[in-house]
Amino acid sequence: MEEEIGFVCDKLKVFLIEKNRKYGNSALNPVRIFSGQPAIEGILVRIDDKLSRIINREINTAPDKDSFGSCWIFNSLLH
Fold first, then answer.
1. Owning domain of residue 52
2. What angle do CA 12, 13, 18 make, to 5 degrees?
3. What confidence score (pLDDT) does residue 23 get?
């Protein structure tokens, strides 16, 4: 089980690093063109939106890496 956990965490790590390189640090340092809300509120809105799509069956699979990534970023802000 430890190997599986490590594999999943490594995949998430690579995904988040690639996304950060592609989009910059937009989760923690948004450009704030339309919204002045704190970064943590923006992350929570993204998580709500993704969960809403899952609940409404707009996403037919389990939560994706992006959803887990948003949760990880939120959790890291709390610690």
1. 2-78
2. 100
3. 86
CB count within 10 Å of CB 36 equals 8
Nearest to 69 by CA among 26, 16, 24, 17: 16
For 9, 38, 52, the CA distances from 65, given in Å and listed in that order, are 10, 23, 16
* Structural domains of the chain, count: 1
At 17-63, the pLDDT tens digits run 988 899 888 888 888 889 888 888 888 888 888 888 778 876 555 56
* CA distances (Å), origin 71, targets 29, 33, 34: 16, 24, 23
Any idea which residue has 């809105």 for tokens?
45
Tell me if the pTM is above 0.85. Answer: no
